[in-house]
Automatic annotation (TrEMBL):
Protein's name according to its UniProt entry: FCD domain-containing protein
Keyword NAD: no
Domain GntR C-terminal: 4-40
Keyword NAD: no
Keywords assigned: DNA-binding, Transcription, Transcription regulation
Amino acid sequence: MTISSSNRREPAIAEMTAILDAIKSRDPDRAEAAARHHVEQAWSIAQKLLRSR
């Protein structure tokens, strides 16, 4: 739902890349922070989309 939102594709890719980079670096704290950030961003957009319906 959120990936099809305008201006979401590039930030989502960057967020997922940050998660993957942290995992590759074996940095669980950074991976968790990046994953939380990604979910929070998606949730924020989803809330706006659901409210506009």
